[in-house]
From TrEMBL:
<protein>
    <submittedName>
        <fullName>Glycerophosphodiester phosphodiesterase family protein</fullName>
    </submittedName>
</protein>
<dbReference type="InterPro" id="IPR017946">
    <property type="entry name" value="PLC-like_Pdiesterase_TIM-brl"/>
</dbReference>
<feature type="domain" description="GP-PDE">
    <location>
        <begin position="1"/>
        <end position="262"/>
    </location>
</feature>
<dbReference type="Pfam" id="PF03009">
    <property type="entry name" value="GDPD"/>
</dbReference>
<dbReference type="InterPro" id="IPR030395">
    <property type="entry name" value="GP_PDE_dom"/>
</dbReference>
């Protein structure tokens, strides 16, 4: 299914996942939009007129400079995605976070399934503050308000590569301004774990590195520090099996159908 779309999340529920992972950005009118990129990706999005987007110009279609009414007019599914050739082609718009949660919860209850967790990634880059996103405090406040209106805090995981975002959430939780949710540190580089933790300033609930950065010994050391280990993005069943055998606590994957029978 088209990525970060309502049909994709409902399909994931049908496949038996226990956590929906999604990325969020902010629109010009301060709506929380589910999208991997803070712009319209030329690989799979069409303009409101139905025309392709030039890859050299895709970042000009900056979601932070567009209202949600403008954003929802783009089609980000009907042309498919060459990187995922088995993806169904469906006309879909980038949804609001509140709408994803409402529709996923309604579908889950209709199917009489147990409660889901929602792993929300704040797509934040320090070099993009006030360009394609708000600064961490405003970004976080907008996301928190949607989440706390829609879900009990025990169903929420908040993750980010931007440690300034995670520090803000921790400070707000400690001050009693945010309810307690699980915090997950996304990691993509080879710095030692202790370096990351020193930079972060606290022990997160989850340590979430690129899967190729993990060994059995590293997983054991992370568990010893009191963190769960949930690597991203694991799409090869052989890699999934190795990580499961090495005692990871979960997998982030584009293909839950490949993981369900392992």
């Amino acid at each position: 299914m088209p990525e970060n779309s309502v049909p994709a999340f409902l399909k994931a529920i049908d496949l038996g996942v226990n956590t929906l992972e999604m990325d969020v950005v902010i629109s010009k009118d301060r709506q929380v939009v589910v999208s991997h990129d803070p712009y319209m990706n030329a690989a799979f999005c069409l303009t409101p007129a139905g025309t392709p987007i030039d890859k050299e110009e895709q970042q000009m279609h900056n979601l932070y400079q567009m209202t949600y009414d403008e954003i929802r007019r783009y089609d980000c599914g009907s042309v498919g995605n060459a990187a995922h050739p088995d993806q169904q082609k469906l006309k879909v718009a980038k949804p609001l976070l509140q709408d994803v949660i409402q529709q996923a919860e309604a579908y889950r209850k209709l199917k009489r399934l147990p409660a889901l967790s929602y792993n929300i990634e704040i797509k934040s880059d320090a070099g993009q503050y006030d360009i394609s996103q708000p600064k961490p405090a405003e970004f976080s406040d907008l996301v928190y308000q949607v989440l706390i209106e829609q879900l009990p805090p025990e169903q929420v995981i908040l993750q980010s590569f931007d440690f300034a975002v995670l520090k803000h959430w921790k400070q707000q939780i400690d001050a009693g301004r945010y309810q307690k949710v699980r915090l997950s540190a996304l990691v993509a580089n080879l710095k030692p774990v202790d370096t990351h933790l020193k930079e972060l300033g606290f022990i997160p609930d989850i340590y979430s590195p690129y899967y190729q950065l993990l060994s059995k010994n590293k997983i054991r050391r992370l568990h010893g520090k009191g963190m769960k280990v949930i690597p991203w993005t694991v799409n090869n069943p052989n890699h999934m099996r190795r990580l499961i055998n090495n005692s990871v606590d979960g997998l982030i994957t584009d293909y839950p159908d490949r993981a369900k029978n392992l």
